[in-house]
Every structure is written in structure tokens, then in C-alpha cells.
Specification:
Strand 7, helix 6 and strand 8 form a beta-alpha-beta unit. The model is unreliable at 1-33 (pLDDT under 50). Helices cover 41% and strands 14% of the residues. It is built from eleven helices and ten strands. The chain has helices at residues 10-23, 64-79, 94-104, 122-136, 152-165, 181-190, 211-218, 232-237, 254-263, 278-286, 295-306; strands spanning 37-39, 46-48, 52-53, 84-86, 112-117, 141-146, 168-175, 195-199, 221-225, 270-271. An eight-stranded parallel beta sheet has the order 3-4-5-6-7-8-9-10. A two-stranded antiparallel ribbon has the order 1-2. The chain has a domain at 45-229 and 267-290: Alpha-Beta Barrel (TIM Barrel). The chain has 308 residues and is of the alpha/beta class. Residues 1-29 form the signal peptide. InterPro entries: NAD(P)_OxRdtase_dom_sf, NADP_OxRdtase_dom, TAT_signal.
């Protein structure tokens, strides 16, 4: 076993994680689920803290060679104790791929499926959401979100009815640009929402000023996407050794440090990095267990990154 604090190169960790993923077998294999959970404020339902985004990564053709690694990504997520899979009609074939893989693995009951409505008009929104549920091969989704606030008043009215009817479990909104924070904040103050999904990363911390505190005040769960700054953060850290204190927070790669930095914020409920590689999923999922950084450690992480 490697001594705490001794860095292991990400490439070496990923080779080990890939071997472990292959050796663990199918999604039905019994493995201890060690991932931490946090409650969804509006319902109290425990949610695992690391999930899987599907933007770009799951937009693939329905061919065995393309689907096989994605099936293993989901298997690794579930074996680690994760459940959240986030998609959108905007993401090409991602919803269809998720639905196909969950059905083939008989894993629908293990998944907390989130998707979005991304169109204008009541009837168009209803049609799109029904299509999403058909592609996902589900009669109910755990979370339906208004993507980038597009026609949010219209869609939230529909979603309130759908939630009452049991078609969706939770309702939320999303946005990815800092320029939309004023509107995002206004909707969060005006509407009773279960979730808000935002970009948040070590190099993109604008949501810390108003959005995250407001989510905590309003009792809204927070999904975090783009936790690696669109990949730029990891590329910039690729050749840098881990800090000698990384083992103190249970981290063996920079990816885990970046994810734990986000989980150190008390308003964050779940982080959903996207990947098409089982080894990356294993690496990400490992950040969901063990110590959570306090503010002092978060400051240390930020300083280590800025030291460049």
C-alpha cells in the first residue's frame, strides 16, 4: 500500500483503476458502496455525492464498440455507491444511450436519472419531456430541470403538475454562464425549487458569491457540472506532483483533489463530472469517500493550484 502523502501519477492510478473495474465484473457484482451521501433538502432523500454527466461523452452511435465502455462507466458508478446520471435533449444521443444501457444492465432501480427540458412553449415542452422519458426508457425521472432557464415560467408550471402526478420526483433549473446569475438568482428567490445545477470549479468560483449561499438559504440541492473547468484544470495540473498533504484528505490524484474541493462547500449536494472512460469514473468516484476538506484545506488547495 502506498504511504499517505506520497503522490501516485494519474496515469498509474488510472491503470490500477481500470484493472479493478475490469476485475469487478458486471454491474450486478457485489461490492461495498462507500460513497458518502447528502440529503436533498426538500425531501430528505440521500443522494450520493459523485455522479456522472453525459454531455458529449454519451453522445455515441448505437454500436457495441462505442457502448461497451459507457456500460462499464455506469457499472463502476453503481459499484462505488453512486447513482446520479445527468442528461439533456441538448446532448445528442445521450438520453437514448443512457436508457439503453440501464435497460440492458437492469439497473434502472439503481439510477437517479436527471434530464432537462430545452425548448419554448407549453406543448413543445411537454412533447420534449415525454420524448426524453421514452428515450430514457422510464415512466418517471427523478429530476427534470429547465435547461438554461429557457421559457422557465411555462415549463415550471407544467413540472409542478407533473410532480404532483408522480411523473417527476424533483424539479430544478440550470445555467452555465456567470452573466445569467442575476436571472438565476431571481428565479431561485421566486420559485420553490428542489435543485439548481451550475458550473463550479477551482478556476470558476463565481457561484460562491450569491448562488451557493442562496441555494442553502432556500433549501435547494446543488448539482455541480464542469468541475474540472472544462478539462483545462486537469490539463494544467497533469505534470505537477501532488501536494504532500493530499493523503490527509484521501486523495491520490489531482482529479480527486479538485472534486473534494467542491464537496468541501456545504451547499454542494452532488458533483457530476462527465466521462466515457471507466478508469476515470473510478478515479472520480473515489473522491466521494473519506475526509471532506474544511475551509482551511480548501484554501490550501486553492493556494497549491495558484502557485502553478
Amino acid at each position: 500500500m502506498e504511504a499517505p502523502g506520497v503522490p501516485i501519477p494519474r496515469s498509474a492510478f488510472l491503470r490500477l483503476a481500470a484493472a479493478a473495474a475490469l476485475g469487478a465484473g458486471t454491474a450486478g457484482a457485489a461490492e461495498p458502496a462507500t460513497m458518502a451521501t447528502r440529503p436533498i433538502p426538500s425531501t430528505g432523500q440521500p443522494l450520493p455525492v459523485i455522479g456522472c454527466g453525459t454531455w458529449r461523452t454519451f453522445d455515441v452511435a448505437a454500436e457495441p464498440a462505442a457502448l461497451a465502455p459507457l456500460a462499464e462507466v455506469l457499472a463502476v458508478l453503481f459499484r462505488a455507491g453512486g447513482s446520479v446520471i445527468d442528461s439533456s435533449p441538448m446532448y445528442g444521443r445521450s438520453e437514448a444511450v443512457v436508457g439503453q444501457l440501464l435497460t440492458q444492465a437492469r439497473s434502472h432501480d439503481r439510477a437517479f436519472v436527471a434530464t432537462k427540458v430545452w425548448t419554448r412553449g407549453r406543448e413543445a415542452g411537454i412533447a420534449q419531456m415525454r420524448q426524453s422519458m421514452a428515450l430514457l426508457q422510464r415512466r418517471r425521472v427523478e429530476l427534470m430541470q429547465v435547461h438554461n432557464l429557457v421559457d422557465w415560467k411555462t415549463h415550471l408550471a407544467t413540472l409542478r403538475r407533473w410532480k404532483a402526478e408522480g411523473l417527476v420526483g424533483h424539479v430544478g433549473i440550470t445555467h452555465y454562464t456567470q452573466s445569467a446569475h442575476d436571472e438565476l438568482e431571481a428565479v431561485m428567490r421566486a420559485e420553490p425549487l428542489d435543485f439548481v445545477q451550475i458550473n463550479y470549479a477551482l478556476d470558476d468560483r463565481a457561484v460562491e458569491r450569491r448562488i451557493l449561499p442562496l441555494a442553502a438559504d432556500r433549501g435547494m440541492a446543488v448539482l455541480v457540472n464542469q468541475p474540472f473547468g472544462g478539462g483545462g484544470l486537469l490539463r494544467g495540473l497533469r505534470d505537477r506532483p501532488l501536494p504532500d498533504w493530499a493523503g490527509e484528505i484521501g486523495c491520490r490524484t489531482w482529479a480527486q483533489i479538485l472534486l473534494k474541493f467542491l464537496l468541501g462547500h456545504p451547499a454542494v449536494t452532488c458533483v457530476i463530472p462527465g466521462t466515457s472512460r471507466p478508469a476515470h469514473m473510478a478515479d472520480n468516484a473515489a473522491a466521494g469517500s473519506g475526509p471532506v476538506p474544511d475551509e482551511a484545506v480548501r484554501a490550501r488547495i486553492a493556494a497549491a493550484w495558484q502557485a502553478g
